[in-house]
Amino acid sequence: MDARRFNLRRWFVTGFLLLLVAAAYGIGYRETEINPVKLITSLGKSQAILNDLLHPDLFTHQTHDTTLDIVFPVPCGSAQPTQLPDNQAHIFANVACANPGDTVSVSGTGMQPDTDVKIQWLLPNGNALFSKLARTDAHGNFTAQVQVRPINTTTGGIPSHLQALTAVPFGGLLPSQALKDVINNIIVTVFIALLATTAGTIIAAPISFLAARNIMGHSRLGTSIYVIVRSILNITRSYDSLVLATVFALWVGFGAFAGVLALTVITMASLGKLFSEAVESIDPGPLEAVSATGARPIQVVVFSVVPQIIPDFISYIIYHWDINVRISTILGFVGGGGIGFYLSQRINVLEYQKAGTAIWAIVLVVWAMDFFSAEVRKRYT
Amino acid sequence: MLQIEHLTKVYPNGTVALKDVTFTVQDGEFLVIIGLSGSGKSTLLRCINRLIEPTEGRVLWDGANITRASPAELRQLRRHVGMVFQQFNVVKRSSVMTNVLSGRLGYVNSFSSVLGLWSKSDRERALKALERVGIADKADNRADALSGGQQQRVGIARTLMQEPKLILADEPVASLDPVLSHSILRYLEQLNKEGITVLCSLHFLDLVHRYATRVIALKEGVKVFEGLPKEIDRAKFKEIYGEEAQEVRATTVEEG
User: Fold this and answer.
1) Hey, what CATH class is B1-80+196-256 in?
2) What is the ipTM of this complex?
């Protein structure tokens, strides 16, 4: 009887706990708005963007730019139409003039075959108004329908012009402006990481000895310093790099410097911990031996501790540089400068191909750093 | 003269490693300390140069109270107390030369030594020390490229740099092939004959008989024997090491 009642109680407790867990996942599912179907249904909408991201803006050609131009009076009689030349490349409309709201047919002849043509209005105020894109056929001719708008009306005696622009590429590939910008920015990012790693190391290396129990734990004063330094490192490490970068960006202004400051603090705290653990894991024998010769504490550290920790230190520094490159690509989003800043701006102005260039560059550099850091660490340890 | 008076060491975890140990070492002795592992031999040797702080009692050396010395005084005293370790305790990633030079640290300016600037005379002294232990040709090798016996000789050369008056040797041959034991102990014997007092802990009874001028035995932190090596017979050995102990010989090869 007793055993059965006990089992019943346990059954209830287990059931209740399971219910709580189920509730937690249920609330979590609702609050995070999980919707796997969206992954498929949204694909169509975002396909263009994804396509842009996958086709980064890398290269351009030098181009021969030509502009063919005719005066097109709107309404009729408001200006003198252009006299059409006979032989050379030119464009013409099926009518010499039109009223707003009319559709006219624009044709070109004698042009470069199989070339994109950009048709635009040159308005009386001097601004260009894009109309549509066309493409010449194998004979260098094209025809396109163009809508006449009220804005094309002759103003102050100045008529609108109809223009056809072609840009024929020639010569070899050239890096596009986006590629150049991305390269500049990724270099900035790598150097943000390099400077932050260096500064962090310079601060962390001496501090790590103060945070190592086997160096400091021999006296009451030493132990107090150990506890204080350890606590400072732990507290500093608990701040996220994005939060720190935001704070520094508000403090010293947006840009690479804010990123360097934030990463330096992160690196200092993280390397300080790793270094101090490396110091704590040394073989205590040589420490004992050098102490026994009557050496001063600083000599003991330099002669018995430093040679033992150098491989670990080098490995940690390279590893952290690698980590810092990753972090600093993201820091740009909150004002830390470098490639992240460039990427966030391109996304904001919907230039997804340029964003794609930045993303591919980040992937490439992170991969390269990962490889480089692994190789160096393999050599040194 | 080294006087150990009522030395007691209780570790923070409550282990009593030494209990009221008293003895005197005259200058020029080769005193061997025997006892089982954990009997307090290492603790005793380390309490003498205060690598371990004794809980009670005192150590007097030529009248100076080592246990009461300030950090600066202790460094002055340590300069003349060499130490040889079971695990050699050389810095493996440093060169043999640097390891030997580190024995000189108590004598040199800390700034220049930290920068690795050594006087010509110190370098010559280090080479001479390496010559004495027969590995001068290894000076530029990294210490971990050397065999165990060679590393222990680096340890002895490091000790020579201190111009020691006293050498504390903590089981100097316990990590070596038994056949190498004599080669290491003969260096210590030679130094002892030159007037350096040696305190050495050993495991093998035949080595005790061969090298010791006097013997002290520890059992669970208490001194249970003090006398001449020849007084340790089979019965005494059983008393010190326990009934189950079997005597093992370090070497069957007679040294020639």
Assistant:
1) alpha beta
2) 0.90
